[in-house]
Amino acid sequence: MITPKERCEMIECIRQDCRKLFLSPSIADRCDTEGTPKQLEFLLEMLEAELTIRDENKKARLVKRARFPVFKSFEGYTYDCVKLPPVLSRECLENADFIAEHDNLVLYGPVGIGKTHMAIAIGIAACIRGYKTRFYTVTELVLKLAEARKNGTLERLRNDLNNQDLLILDEWGYVPVDREGSQLLFQVISDSYEKKSLILTTNLEFSKWGGIFTDDQMAAAMIDRLVHHGHLLVFQGKSYRMEHALMKQTAKQE
What is the per-residue pLDDT for 214? Predict the structure, then answer.
């Protein structure tokens, strides 16, 4: 048997679950007047199971739509090569807490020491917490933007980007961008300002952005928007890929 208080609590849980599942509130009302304790327990168990399934399916859809090139997590990730700013903790990164404040992250350092791994791991964590996320290399995004402008679908693409909670731009500054591409990228940064979070991975210090994006003033405007609500994570050390390269190991054996 259950007490009257426990029955009320179960009815309220059923009512809340029905609301989350967009079911009629009359279900909870009938349970209140007609349901036996066993029936209430069974129904509540079924509703909770359905919510769990839907939640897992939503997370899987978000991860798929993010278009990560590979799956990376923080399991086994070491922070030996990265210096975090004092106001940013590991927990904040691994829980994607910064997204709620629309903060940005710039992951700066040489190639092969974990910037993209961290960016993807944060993106996965964001998806698990229900945030809409999208991953692009900068070259890929510039080509996509230019193609959309040519096809007359640029506004649609911009709306899709604006609908994201987190936008990850990998390999920022690795390849020079022409003036049209720079303008399109600037628009993405401008649209995102104080509305969503951005993560950039780059091996290029801020002072050299003007040379990559053909316009010092445009580069300065990008930097201004990124750093106003942003954190700089500095990566230092030897390339993990070079240290563990099969070619290098083979040479040592010989």
Answer: 76
Q: Across residues 61-88, what is the average pLDDT?
A: 94
Q: What would the DSSP string read from start to end of 202-252?
A: ESS-GGGHHHHSS-HHHHHHHHHHHHHTEEEEEE-S--HHHHT-HHHHHHH
First to last CA, the chain: 76
Is the dihedral angle over the CA atoms 61, 65, 69, 75 positive or is it negative?
Answer: negative
Q: What is the pLDDT of residues 127-144, one digit of tens each?
A: 999 999 999 999 999 999
What pLDDT score does 1 carry?
A: 73
Between strands 104-108 and 230-235, the pairing is parallel
Query: How far from 93 is each of 17, 82, 105, 138, CA to CA, in Å?
Result: 31, 12, 10, 22
pTM, two decimal places: 0.84
